[in-house]
Amino acid sequence: MPSSIGRATFRFERRPSIRSFAAVVGKKEGEGPLHDFFDRIFIDTKLGQDSWEKAESQLQKEALSCAMQKGGLSAEEIELLFAGDLLNQCIGSSYGLRDMNIPFMGLYGACSTMAESLLLAAFSVDSGAVKQAAAVTSSHFCSAERQFRYPLEYGGVRPPTAQWTVTGSGAAIVSDTGGAPYIQMATVGKICDLGVTDINNMGAAMAPAAADTLTRFLQDTGTRPEDYDLILTGDLGFVGSDLLYELMEANGFDIRTQHNDCGKMIFDREAQDVHAGGSGCGCSASVLCSYILSGLRSGRMQRVLFMATGALMSTVSNQQGETIPAIAHLLFLSAQKEG
Amino acid sequence: MPSSIGRATFRFERRPSIRSFAAVVGKKEGEGPLHDFFDRIFIDTKLGQDSWEKAESQLQKEALSCAMQKGGLSAEEIELLFAGDLLNQCIGSSYGLRDMNIPFMGLYGACSTMAESLLLAAFSVDSGAVKQAAAVTSSHFCSAERQFRYPLEYGGVRPPTAQWTVTGSGAAIVSDTGGAPYIQMATVGKICDLGVTDINNMGAAMAPAAADTLTRFLQDTGTRPEDYDLILTGDLGFVGSDLLYELMEANGFDIRTQHNDCGKMIFDREAQDVHAGGSGCGCSASVLCSYILSGLRSGRMQRVLFMATGALMSTVSNQQGETIPAIAHLLFLSAQKEG
User: Fold this and answer.
1) A249/chain B closest Cα distance in angstroms
2) Contact A19, A178 (CB under 8 A)
3) Cβ A312–B90 below 8 Å, yes or no?
4) A-chain residues within 8 Å CB-CB of B314?
5) Does A157 score more than 80 pLDDT?
């Protein structure tokens, strides 16, 4: 069962396995550098649906179905499902997963949802009460743009600090049986708000939350950045990553060598015109559930800190002049059962 | 630690205590039949803020602060905070609780959030990894009306099946030490969708989810409705409650004697002109965290099934012609540690 080794840093005694995982993405993501690692690439980013929102729901359904199939699991064998997304009232999840008939816990963690859902799935499996729990999230460029920014037809100009919402979904099934990757530990994030108000610079708003969580994890575990192959943030993008380096340096940690960011990895910055990188719940979800987890399974990577970051604002809070609170949840994933 | 006694029905070995709780409400709720049980009644339903959304955030802050004070607990002693609300991107919670500096897990369960957050808090405490976890949610009539229905100034006419969103917040602190009430068991809900499309008849959309969860709990535990003092649903209101009776009867259970509904209890139907009763996350939260939990503490009640129901739709899904999926999570609360 889980034990506490610091304020909301948990050590998982059973080292739950990520028994299977899947990532499904849209056309643009499929043209990016991680092309070979995705389970499905939808050239029709509407997935045959009649709205962008329904397409996003379909992405979640496809990702979870694919993960279940790869793990040789039926829906009956999944005891809990943790899911959420960016859409108002999280309709990506509720409509995408309603036919699954799996006990469901809805989450809202914005772009931190992949880490939050995976953390709760690991916690429930490690407690011994659950054999298999699934974690799912998604985002869709078109549903996010029209909800958070402008109608696509308007053709608004994007400043260089803006990130590009990923069309994609990732699903992972955590189990008490199965091979690598294993979930060793986790740290739950706190809401951090350092007063950033620019909705076109989410990376800067989220970097302080990432720095807070990562610093607490390193301090609670007595480890250093060089103990890990990779310290992976969700989607700080290029601007937020640089800010994270500065904040971590002030806390006594240089993470430049180990750090990468899902928002930097999913697109080719030069060729794909995405400004500050990818973003959205589906960004860290689809990078984790493809390139990263397969790397831990094959042994290409050994020890990874996965930390998805989320901005907890809405268009209404922004219009009311509020600053942008953010959060980051962390998981320590490994290729071997350690400790 | 928790153990499974059915598909997502959990028995909590430690019987976590609801160590303290608080409910804060607006003027109309304060004029209702539960007047004497609320911790604070705000005559100014803007709580001195400059927007309804900020007022809702303030409600959550007041409820949690009050619960911490009543439990003799500082924010440092709360290890995890589970919270969510109805507003887009759950800004009621993120802005209301950002200054607390407590590790935070955001949830979206619509009006089921009080049960979902309490269930996860109980699960985390029962696992042994956490000493204290808090569960918080809220709703506000004015922020909900303008988000989901019409601007208040429009003066839209409400049909008789419509429910009235409660202005209020409830907070409960689950602890491994403390007296009654105790959390004995819980059942996680599944998403149910029987094809209701009328957003002015949420009770009917949510009743099938409540029937599914309650039936599973009774079957998994081998108990009958008469084994409980009270079977309390979140906010089915008058219309949804009648439908629940029919659905339960078809499953072999007559719950009419034991059943009540938070949406029926919070307002005086005759005097307060609320049509089909109260609704919103804050409805079940403020009824639970006042009249119900105090009744279990004093011994006025002995065994209560608390089941909050949520409709997992959005204005966008409704405009796109979608039906309304719903969910209900259940907790078995008791005045004595049993079993």
Assistant:
1) 22
2) yes
3) yes
4) 87-89, 91
5) no
Closest CA to B134 of B73, B219, B47, B181: B73
Residue from the list A95, A107, A120 with its beta carbon closest to the beta carbon of B108:
A107
Helical H segments across chain A, by residue range? 27-30, 52-70, 91-97, 113-126, 141-148, 202-221, 237-250, 262-265, 269-272, 281-287, 293-298, 315-319
- CA torsion A253-A256-A260-A265 (nearest 10°) is 160
Give how far Cα A272 sits from Cα of A111, A242, A275, Å. Answer: 21, 21, 9
Pairwise CA distance, residues B304 & B331, whole Å: 8
- According to DSSP, the β-strands at A80-85 and A40-42 are unpaired
Residue B60 C-alpha, separation from nearest chain A C-alpha, in angstroms: 15
Q: What is the Cβ-side half-sphere exposure of residue B321, based on CA atoms within 13 angstroms?
A: 2
Q: What is the pLDDT of residues B282-302, one digit of tens each?
A: 999 999 999 999 999 999 999
Residues in chain A closer than 8 A to B188 (CB atoms): 80, 103-105
CB contact under 8 A, A98 and B191: yes
Q: How far is B91 from chain A (nearest CA, A)?
A: 6
Residue that is written with structure tokens 């002693």 in the block: B77
Separation of alpha carbons A126 and A16, rounded Å: 6
Burial (CB count within 10 angstroms: exposed 0-12, middle 13-18, buried 19+), residue B277: buried
Integer Cα distance of A224 and B299 in angstroms = 53
Cα separation values, B147 from A296, B88, B275, Å: 44, 8, 20
Give me the residue from A94, A98, A189 closest to B104, CB to CB: A189
* DSSP 3-state of A7: coil
Hey, are the CB atoms on B107 and A107 less than 8 Å from each other?
yes
Question: A234-247: string of b/e by CB count within 10 Å (b at 16+)?
Answer: bbbbbbbbebbbeb
- State how far the Cα of A334 lies from the Cα of A293, in Å rounded to an integer: 9
Which residue of chain B comes nearest to A78, CA vs CA?
A: B7
Q: How far apart are CA B18 and CA B61, in angstroms?
A: 19
Contact B106 A312 (CB under 8 A): yes
* Residue B304 bridge partners (DSSP): B230, B333
Q: Contact A256/A248 with Cβ under 8 angstroms?
A: no
CB A93 within 8 A of CB A60: yes
CB-closest option in A103, A106, A190 to B107: A106
* pTM of the predicted model as reported, rounded to 2 decimal places: 0.97
Is the pLDDT at B156 greater than 90? The verdict is: no
Q: What is the DSSP string of A13-58?
A: TT--EEEEEEEEEEHHHHTSTTGGG-SEEESSTTTT-SSHHHHHHH
Per residue in A236-283, pLDDT tens?
A: 988 899 999 999 999 999 999 999 999 999 999 888 988 788 999 999
Interchain pair B51, A320: CB under 8 A: yes
Nearest-CA distance from B5 to chain A in Å? Answer: 9
DSSP for residue A156? P
Within 8 A of B120 by CB-CB distance, chain A residues are: 105, 120
Chain A residues whose beta carbon lies within 8 Å of the beta carbon of residue B193: 98
